[in-house]
Structures are given as structure tokens and as C-alpha cells.
Amino acid sequence: MGRLKDPDAIRRIAKKSLFEGLDGMCEGAIIIDRDAKVVWISDKYAARLGLASPASAVGKVVEDVIPNSLMREVVRTGEPMMLDIMQFGPDSFVVMRVPIKDERGRIIGAAGFMIFDSLKHLHPLVSKFQRLETQLADTQKTLAEERRVKYTFTNFMGSSPAAMETKRQARRAAQAETTVLLLGETGTGKEVLAQAIHAASPRAHGPFIGINVAAIPDTLLESEFFGAAASAYTGADKRGRDGKFVLANGGTLFLDEVGDMPMGVQAKLLRVLQEKEVEPLGSNRVAKVDVRVIAASSVDLRQMVSMGRFRSDLYYRLSVLPIELPPLRDRIGDLELLCDHILEDISRASGRPPRELTPTALAVLSAYSWPGNIRELRNVLEQVTMNSDNARLSAEEFSLVLPRLAPASRPGDRPTLRLADVVADAERHAIKSALAAAEGKKILAAELLGISRATLYQKLSALAPARGDRRH
Ligand SMILES: Nc1ncnc2c1ncn2[C@@H]1O[C@H](COP(=O)(O)OP(=O)(O)OP(=O)(O)O)[C@@H](O)[C@H]1O
Questions:
Q1: From the record, what ranges are coiled-coil (predicted)?
Q2: Which residue out of 160, 191, 258, 381 has the highest number of ligand 1 atoms within 8 Å of its CB and is therefore the one to mutate?
Q3: How high is the ipTM of this complex?
Q4: What pLDDT shows up at residue 468?
């Protein structure tokens, strides 16, 4: 073995032969200068790219020769790209890009090698990559669908003066950019209207993100809204996550039951609305957000302000455009239309012909006070349709389901023996009575029942699951 006499010479030869070796082994090579202009391209590469001759490429900027080239990036950053898949028309090439530096370490250009002109050599890697790309595209599609609204103004049924006035105000709100505050009892259609406003606004192409403040434990609200930086949390949040504000960027954020927000989060929300930027939990970096907020409440926020449970500055900020949604009992003229519409919906979902109501059934429904409003109406219609085979639903069938009109049990009736049924019945009755006493205000109903709001929400969805009602 000979000794190294002239290390510089060996380095020069190694450099030269390495380049030539690589060029020989590869399917093609290209060299560009600091301005990303081609200074040399191998015959094979020129032929593979369909160029008339290698010389025709020299002096051109690299993107004119290879449209998707990232060689300029290598010259700019000085960072090599050791393995990349590049698309050239219908073909995929596996490429490597390295910077070229002079003796003083200054970047003077870059060399690119087409390692394979077909992906078959990288089959395991590429098929995994393609599978992941397909999965990602599917997930993005599902997410985009979820963020698209389901309701427009035509879904907000009603031609009573009260319903028409609400719709008129909401249509005007759709054109404005300001925050909207929807006020109305539970089940009056606040979410339907929020989606309709979004769909008719210039942000319709952006996402619609809904969040039910009352259904989320106080401790999680902040990260749910503003996100969490990596490592601020353990477990599922270890990698950090985007908050709803970031997810709603360019679109609309719907804050349902905004009155249930703890004071600390209220202060942060106010700051985000004023500054239009969010700071994820555990991070010291802020991100600009362009979000329109539509807030909703079934409790009287002004009363909460006077009780010191809601910040007055936030209230004023949110209530720039307040819209009242009438309770169903105040627009009972819409009942028939709503029933027809809901019965058609039920028939579509079940594949059975739509049912009708007898005039006495309609009278019974009109006499009821509907503390749960249209959501309760839908639940009652679903329950009765499920229990009945009649084409026309009768008043008797409804009186079995409606709480106030339930017949008292007669002596001789078979008692309900299953304890679970008895308990569930009692619970259902207590919740309905509390909601009625609290005029549909869940926060008050929960207080009356001596349970938390979150428990009330759980019980409501367990007792009367209303398909597709809650999308949060
Ligand atoms: N005007 C309407 N026309 C037709 N359906 C409606 C209308 N308003 C509400 N609904 C239906 O009633 C149900 C409850 O509506 P929504 O969730 O919008 O009420 P909400 O006021 O947001 O309730 P909560 O305060 O409990 O969140 C949904 O099934 C919705 O489709």
C-alpha cells in the first residue's frame, strides 16, 4: 500500500472521480451556478428530459429545463437534499442534490443527480409513501367535509312574523364582518342559523368550526380554544395541537353556550378578539388569525354580567349584532310547517313514506309549551313515528310521549318492574320538569337538579339521542 504523499492531490482526484463515478452510476447529472443557471448537464439527463442537446440547456435557469427543480433551494440554503422524489411529466425520478462550495466554503453552485429514472428500485419506500399520501388526502377530504356547513337559510324553517324577522336580521348579519350574538332557548335553531350566516357570508368557502363551551370541562377549554404547544401536555397532546381559532382561520368560529365560559378564559377570548392573534398554551409565540366569531347563549348574558359572572367588556364585544331566536311557543303558527318538514326528514332517513298528523294531534302539539323547542319537537316526532305504524299520527299517540299530557297510571296497570327503566323514567321526568321550570336554560336546570352542566348534557344526549343534532 502506497503512502499518501500529496493529500491535496488525492482530495482533488477523489472529488473529481467521485463526481464522475456518481455521474456514471446515475441516470443523469446537472450542475448549476450560484444564480441557478445550468453550467453543465450530462448527455443521459438531457436525453431523459427530452432536450435537443445538452448545450441547449446551458445558460438557462434550471427551472426552464426542469420545471419542478429544487436546485435553487440548495444554492440558497447550502443544505443538501439527499433523497427526493421529483415529478417530471408522467414520470417520477429519485434525485439527490448537493451544494458545491469553493475552498473558502462559499456556495458557488449545486450538483443534482438523477439516481433512478424509475421508482421500482425504491418500491417498499415508495409504496409506503404513496399509501400515506392517499391516507392524508382522504383525511383532509373528510376534515374539509366536516368543516363545511350542513344548513343554509332555507333550512331555517318558518314563515311566522317572528321567524321572518330573525331570518331578516341574520341575512343582514351575513354581509357584515362583525361578531354576532345569537340569543334563544335551547333547541331554537341557534346552530342552524350560525351555519346559515356563515354559508351566506363572504367566508362561505372557509371552514365553519363549532364548539360547545358547556360540554367541555373548564380545565380543557383554554387549549381547546387557543391550542397547546408541543410538550406543554403529556400523552395525546405531546406533539402539540391547533386550537379551534387556528382551525377556523379564514372562516367562522361558532361558540355555543358562551355564558358557560370561566372568567379566565373570557379574558383571553377578549384579547384574541381585539388583537386577532392567539398564543397557544405553553408557547410564547403568537399566531395571527382571521376568524369571525358567532357566539350563542341560552342564558340571559346581561343578567350574568350584572351577577358578575360574565365580563361586561366581552359582552359588549360579542353583542355588536344581537339576534333573538323566538321560542317555538311564540311562533306556534310555524308548528305545522315544522312538523311536515321534520316528518319528511324522518321518512327520508327511514325509507318509509312520510306520516301525517291528525287535526287533533296538531291541536295537542300546539297546546304544549315546548321547553326544548324544535329539538324537542324532532325528538317527540321521532319517538312517536318509531312506536307507530299508522299513516296518520293521532293525539293519543302523542299524549303517551309528551310529559305534561302523560296519562296517570290506573290501578290494575301492569307496574314497570325493571329498576333501570323506573330510574330512567324518573330521571327523564326530572330533567324535563327542570328544563321547563328553567324555561329551557340548561345552566339553571342543572342548578335545580343539583348536577353539573356537563352531566346534564351527558344525560340529555343519553336519554333522548337526537340524530345529527350535535356536531361538536
Ligand atoms: N328553524 C328551524 N327549521 C328547521 N329545523 C330547525 C330549526 N331550528 C332548529 N331546527 C332543528 O332543531 C334542532 C336543534 O337546533 P340547533 O342545534 O340549531 O339549536 P340550538 O338553539 O343551537 O340548541 P342549543 O342551545 O341546545 O345548542 C336541530 O335538529 C335543527 O335541525
A1: none
A2: 191
A3: 0.95
A4: 36
Q: Which residues line ligand 1 (CB under 6 A)?
A: 155-158, 184, 186-192, 256, 298, 374-375, 378, 469
Ligand 1 mutation target, pool 151, 164, 180, 188, most atoms within 8 A of CB: 188
| Section 245-260 average pLDDT | 94
Which cell numbers in the block locate residue 283? Answer: 408557547
Mutate-to-test residue for ligand 1 from 155, 343, 374, 378, highest number of ligand atoms within 8 A of CB: 374
pLDDT in tens, 98-111: 999 988 989 999 99
Q: Which atom of ligand 1 sits closest to the CA of residue 256? A: 27
Provide the residue type at 372 as one letter.
G
Give the residue whose CA is nearest to atom 26 of ligand 1: 186
CA 186 to chain centre: 23
* 13-123 matches 153-324 in fold: no
Q: In which band, very low, low, confident or very high, does the pLDDT at 237 lie, cut at 50, 70 and 90? A: low
Task: Tell me, in angstroms, the distance from the centre of ligand 1 to residue 135's CA.
Answer: 34
State in Å: Cα 190 to ligand 1 middle: 6
The full set of domain ranges for the chain reads 13-123, 153-324, 332-409+416-463
Count CA atoms within 13 Å of residue 136 on its CB side.
Answer: 6
CATH number, span 13-123: 3.30.450.20
Q: Binning pLDDT at 50, 70 and 90, where does residue 147 land?
A: confident
CATH code linked to domain 332-409+416-463: 1.10.8.60
CATH superfamily of 153-324: P-loop containing nucleotide triphosphate hydrolases (3.40.50.300)
